[in-house]
């Protein structure tokens, strides 16, 4: 008798909640974050999402046709939609259309299907595409709209698709990026002199982060995933931020700054919980989350990329098989050796 080895995610056939249901719940959980981002940063988020979904479905259908797979069957699982949605949420609202096109196409064609499709890709497709865009087009990927300064829907549409000239004075770095590249300023001076770190901007990012937290709590209550990876990531990031801020509060940002700005909450509840690219055991998911949180802080504090969620997740995707190898639960029926007992003699 041979054993059948199947890659993650593993699902119980008796469970009526299939992949399509889970992906639908993930999409619903992002609604509070989408609404918050649209409220503060304008219509660019909605436009990017709609365009990204069209590109993702077209690329998915094309690759499935080339692979001679049933197109309708695989499109219904919603995995391409979730990948496009997460990438669109990470892209700046006024990013040009070709940036979204390149990122989504790379995520679906290369990061997903070149490894065999859903369940076989070792790296999170959305984060692979985000890392590619950030390394290749750093200027376009780091220019965000200041809260309440975005143009109208028609103006945003024209700007994204190159139908109107660029808007002057309406974009800025993210709070994490502004903090990272500050020079010889105390925290108080930095928060007072930098537009991206003023209270109005920080409150907007905090509100968006809390909206993603609300969506994550919804997924936890629906038992779409367990708490281990999100808590591990947020907990280790908080501990690292607390240690360094206590060491020098004028140089290292506070715990709340790291948790409530950038893609921290999006990463904790929608990225590290990916059932395909994360660890599969309960203990493994906790270790995976802790590793992501530690790497996020190290890259933010000492690296060149201020947000760091994508790079931390991809690095831990490398380690996921190793974590699974050494964090599997004890086999049922296996007796664990008790310490202090004498060995039996033959």
Low-confidence stretches: 1-7, 11-16
Identify the overall geometry.
globular
Number of domains: 2
Head-to-tail CA distance between termini:
33 Å
In helices, the fraction of residues equals 55-70%
Biggest sheet, open or closed, and with what strands and sense? 2 strands, antiparallel
Question: If you average the pLDDT, what whole number results?
Answer: 86
Strand order in the largest sheet: 1-2
- Beta-strand portion reads under 5%
Number of strands: 2
Please, how many helices?
17
- Computed over alpha carbons, the radius of gyration is 22 Å
Helix-strand string: HHHHHHHHEHEHHHHHHHH
Structural class: mainly alpha
Can you describe this structure?
It is a single chain. The chain is an all-alpha fold and 346 residues long. It folds into two domains: 19-172, no CATH class; 197-327, no CATH class. Helix content is 60%, strand content 1%. The protein has 17 helices and two strands. A two-stranded antiparallel sheet has the order 1-2. Helix 6 crosses helix 7 (125-136), helix 7 runs antiparallel to helix 17 (309-325) and helix 13 (228-247) runs parallel beside helix 16. The longest helix has 23 residues, at 44-66. It is globular and about 60 Å long.
